Sequence to fold (536 residues):
Amino acid sequence: MNRVLVVEDERHLAEGLRFNLEAEGYAVEVVDSGEEALERLSPGSNSFDVLILDVMLPGKDGFAVMSELRQSAMFIPTLMLTARGHPGDVLQGFEAGADDYLTKPFELAILIARIRGLLRRRKWLQAPAARGKDVFTFGEKKNKSVNFDSLELSAGDQVFRLTLMEANLLRYLIEHEGQPVSRKTMLQKVWSVQEDTDTRPIDNFIVRLRRYLEDDPTHPRHLLTVRGVGYRFVAVPSA
Amino acid sequence: MVVAGRQKSIAFFIALGAGLISVILLLYIGWVLLKWHAGIMIFFGVLLTLLVIAGVVLNTIFLVREIRRNAQHDAFINAVTHELKTPVASIRLYLETLLARAVDENKRQEFYKMMLADSERLITTIDQVLRTGRLGASRRKPDLAPIDLAVLLEECIARIRTLHDLPPDALSYQRSSDIAIQGDSEEVRAAVSNLLDNAVKYSSGNVKVTVETARVKGKYIALRVKDQGSGIPQSELKRIFKRFYRVPGPLATRLKGTGLGLYIVRSVAKRHGGRAWAESAGPGQGSTFTLQFPVSK
Fold:
């Protein structure tokens, strides 16, 4: 049975979520603060398969909880569920390391579908047979590769774990290899954010990706800046 | 993110102000040293310099205030968004659940109660936002009529008891006679309800609220709401009545609110020629809120 941890301080919502997720066959635990969530997810305690995380929590908020989890290499699939639906908030959530983001009020069927989606991905990651199917190899010596199934990026002998959003962004840039892609297009295609919003979080994502895949992140050769537009991915840089 | 940005801009404006003043002082001292013999010019120079300094200081104060006000406004928008969306999300979730799943009768009744409580929360938020708009914008005088404050109080207490599912002794009122006031019953009801609701909300589970009414100097009727809850620091006793203001700290995140309740209380008191104030021995010591209205003639 899959285990879901719900972090929600609104008692009514938490109870409604518990009822529905239990009806779907999940084992559900509810906590009402960020600190408690971190404690429940600390190494050594019971493991969970999915985390549903509210943002406006007493004490540590959802963004802080998310960042701390990712910094301590806890890659539990996480859906942020919050009233804060401004594009800036959505991006902040993804930047903190969320895998999915749903704003309140939400449709029950969509929530359940998204949880299933997160679990599916986790299952793929855990099944070794499924690994290695969706791999893109690049670099002058073909020594770098990104595995979109296991969300792992290998550069030389180093392996980096990507968040879902980092992987989605990289996949989009790879699909448009050689072409400049504007920040606005990335927002629309990768994050599904339509409104005009601050595009700085994208630059932060790029900085992180460069750290993984560039030999020298200060002189990028794969993820190039296109001035005034956005970025361009180059699989095999010319000498 | 936004707040951190604002803190930076406040620091920038303070640094700018201080920098400008230093430059002016430097120029002034230099000028005095060079032209020490031109006495009258020095006098005008001093005057002009003081004027410029006053201008820069005023400008800095204004900017810092404006930035703080914007930060409060942002916090208010976030709070209202949360207070509107959360109960709607909950009601919707329960409606979808009832439509899509087999729910036994006991659970069904429980869901109905939660939806009712959520709709009540929604109505309270909407009422507070609309009332604040009306109190702030209109020059309309309150619709005055004699009100028996004891009757109005008992109605409000009964509503709050049901809303928070409280036993009778959690919220007690010793009824006193001859306490009619001259007021707009809708506005007075809103102010009294806000005080009672706050007293329950900030009691953190240990709800022991007493309400008293008394005549003061024959001219006023005072209504006192006393709780044994989280209390208020001395420095915050006046600020809590400001629009959008919420005492910063973990309590403000745990107990959701718009920062409008006490602003409405104070505005209603003022519009009726009365006043409202708070007393508290400090955090953890409980608090007493007093609302004073002119007596009905």
Summary: The mean pLDDT of chain B is 86. The two ends of chain B are 54 Å apart (CA to CA).
